[in-house]
Amino acid sequence: MKRAGTLRLLSDLNNFSGAARLRELLAGDPAVRVRCSPDGRHLLLLRPPGAPGPQLLVAVRGPGAELERAWPAGQPSPLDAFFLPWPSRPALVLVWESGLAEVWGTGVGPGWRLLQSTELCTGGGARVVAVAAPRGRLVWCEERQAGAEGREGPPAVAFSHCVCVRTLEPSGEAGTNLGRTHILLHNCPRFGLLTSRKDLFLVPTATTWPGVGHILLIWSPSKGKVVVAAPCLGLSHSKSLNPGGGDPWDFRTLLRGLPGLLSPRQPLTVHTWAPTPQGLLWLDFRGTVSLVQPHGGTRAVGTLQEAPASLAGSAALGAFHGTLACVLGSTLELLDMGSGQLLERKVLSTDRVHLLEPPAPGMENEEELETRGGLRLLSAVGLFRVGWEAPQGLELPSAEDLVFEEACEYYQRRSLRGARLTPEELRHNSTFRAPQALASILQGHVSPSTLLTTLRAELRDYRGLEQLKAQLVAGDEEEAGWTELAEHEVARLLRTELMGDQLAQLNTVFQALPTAAWGAILRALQLQPDGNGRLRSQAPPDVWKKVLGVTTGGKEPPSGILPLFELLCRCLCRLEPRWLPPFVELAQQQGGPGWGSGGPGLPLYRRALEVLGEEGTRPEALELDLLLGSGRPKAVLQAVGQLVQKEEWERALEAGLALSSSSPLLRSEIFKLLLAEFARHRRLDAHLPLLCRLCPPDLAPTELLLLLRTHLPDELEPPAPFPEPGAEPPLTVGLLRALLEQTGTQGRPSGPVLSQYEDILWDPGTPPPTPPRGPMSALQASDHPGLEAWAPSGQGLCVTDTG
């Protein structure tokens, strides 16, 4: 069935301030210029210079004051006026031919007031011939005196223009910030300036030099390039605006480097230009509408039933939903932009009609959201919406039916059974309660005010997200915008079940913008350092359950797609590796049964280790921290073993001492491991106090000595009193004394001696009496044949014969 084009009345203009003056200007002056503010609430009407006053009217829909200005005869009126796309407050700029520019806006007080006034033309005798206000900039074409560079003749006059740019941004509550003047193009002909949301079009005028009247330029500020196009030749060339290489800002130099563009051609005969999001539409005097795309390519869109009779006839072009709308006189024609076919033709009640640009994305109010997707048509009769309407007799599914159909597809993707779900089954099956609850809301069981209150926060977030997307499309503050968009997207995905496409999308966000994505995780988990190198979190358990859980339904994710916990570990390895072990420790404290830490799968520290790579290729410091912080006996012993191999004795001892008293067996194993090293060599002697603190309190001296004996090195020769030079000193009783004291009790035992070594520990403090020293007989000396070998050099033993 064929669609029907409709004109829906949005306003009869009575809800606009100054409605009578608004209707008067719309009905009385065919040359009035009409512009609409980005939010769609304000209308600007500007009469051409020389017209009777008032020459300027700004009407507002709803609350607010209008702005009406009139300039007396002999005083020039503005050449053009534009609304500025400032989201904080309405603002407009007025530009005169002399170069005077005024910025007006609404502030804290009522009404409009002048915010700033400046001169655009710095040279004497210069005048502005065209102006445009793309987002965040003010661009004008300025005519300068031809003799400024010593040239004379018609070509010099024809190329005596330049195109200049200044940034124009809001500053504070009621200020503006105008940047320095930058020349975009000089030595160029007179150009008209038209702007879309992304690009600025420099189009020839009736006074442009005939040799270049077939050429137009497209400047993309976000890409830093200019496209030179000749639609009648089918040629286009792209140039980067880099003034470092020669003089590419000069128009004539630019054309000399582009072959084929200066072929003799007739100038473009254009009746009407109209910028659209798809490119630049233009209507010629044969009734043909063409589209110049941003890359410079040109294609015919279609031909109107009637051609414009003369340049004085009114015409307006616009595009919506792949449809071209053209108002020529009092006729409205709708053409398909793909095929050029005429879809509908309507005769209007007036020929004073203006097509308005749609509001900027994200800046529509509630009424504009309802009428989104069509063009707006303004006349003295009222404000209308041009759009398509569903044909009569076409039954659209109800909101309740759409809920159950969408729920069927959702549950079918999650279902493991082969039978297909039906909407009727969902309606009567009590298992699926969510679609039934939503359907009851849509049936009116919940009042609209209650529903609006429930959804207000989500609608506000959605509106903010749409405004952010519009800002990115416009190319303003791209880095901050992409960061905010990534944070919004991560927060949204965390509210889903993170299965399949959602998990893949989250991986993509972390790969593209890891810093912004991690910032969103910080806020979701409420992570904060505690000052001791650890992390704390105040996030609810359901958030941690989603972070720590493995893939939904037990299915492995596709190749290259990481679960959320592994994704966070990889992100931390890239951004802040030192916070990975504290994060894993915190996750182990938060985990519950079946969350990935206490379930049948791998423990969290093992999942984090797998992110670091294969064994042997992981960063040693991170691996050790993860093993020590895991709390798993096998992992801690593995870490202590690695520390022993690296001879990091103090850290190995501190790892054992850090274990709580609830892990006595693990502390005992670490002590035995380090005691074996203490028995083999003397490199642990400096850390003997820490080793004594690690000694288990229930270890008896006998057990200690047996452990030492097990690990003492085998002696191949009889022991010598002193080691050989360069050899490892042996273990002595003096070194053992501190350990043996640690294994005893605090007081001397009152019962029988349980160990043959306890007399060493419980020394009364008074040594036994020294035996008398008398002369040694030869017989006594002969009982010790080796004593003379220990006599000091130069001294002999006094041996006498008493027999």
Automatic annotation (TrEMBL):
<dbReference type="InterPro" id="IPR046823">
    <property type="entry name" value="HPS6_N"/>
</dbReference>
<feature type="compositionally biased region" description="Pro residues">
    <location>
        <begin position="765"/>
        <end position="774"/>
    </location>
</feature>
<dbReference type="GO" id="GO:0007596">
    <property type="term" value="P:blood coagulation"/>
</dbReference>
<keyword id="KW-0472">Membrane</keyword>
<feature type="domain" description="BLOC-2 complex member HPS6 C-terminal">
    <location>
        <begin position="401"/>
        <end position="773"/>
    </location>
</feature>
<dbReference type="Pfam" id="PF15702">
    <property type="entry name" value="HPS6"/>
</dbReference>
<comment type="subunit">
    <text>Component of the biogenesis of lysosome-related organelles complex-2 (or BLOC2) composed of HPS3, HPS5 and HPS6. Interacts with HPS5 and HPS3. Interacts with biogenesis of lysosome-related organelles complex-1 (BLOC1). Interacts with AP-3 complex.</text>
</comment>
<dbReference type="GO" id="GO:0031084">
    <property type="term" value="C:BLOC-2 complex"/>
</dbReference>
<dbReference type="InterPro" id="IPR017218">
    <property type="entry name" value="BLOC-2_complex_Hps6_subunit"/>
</dbReference>
<keyword id="KW-0256">Endoplasmic reticulum</keyword>
<comment type="function">
    <text>May regulate the synthesis and function of lysosomes and of highly specialized organelles, such as melanosomes and platelet dense granules.</text>
</comment>
<dbReference type="GO" id="GO:0032418">
    <property type="term" value="P:lysosome localization"/>
</dbReference>
<dbReference type="GO" id="GO:0031901">
    <property type="term" value="C:early endosome membrane"/>
</dbReference>
<protein>
    <recommendedName>
        <fullName>Hermansky-Pudlak syndrome 6 protein homolog</fullName>
    </recommendedName>
</protein>
<dbReference type="GO" id="GO:0072657">
    <property type="term" value="P:protein localization to membrane"/>
</dbReference>
<keyword id="KW-0963">Cytoplasm</keyword>
<dbReference type="GO" id="GO:0005765">
    <property type="term" value="C:lysosomal membrane"/>
</dbReference>
<keyword id="KW-0492">Microsome</keyword>
<feature type="domain" description="BLOC-2 complex member HPS6 N-terminal">
    <location>
        <begin position="1"/>
        <end position="386"/>
    </location>
</feature>
<keyword id="KW-0967">Endosome</keyword>
<dbReference type="InterPro" id="IPR046822">
    <property type="entry name" value="HPS6_C"/>
</dbReference>
<dbReference type="GO" id="GO:0005783">
    <property type="term" value="C:endoplasmic reticulum"/>
</dbReference>
<feature type="region of interest" description="Disordered">
    <location>
        <begin position="744"/>
        <end position="781"/>
    </location>
</feature>
<dbReference type="Pfam" id="PF20468">
    <property type="entry name" value="HPS6_C"/>
</dbReference>
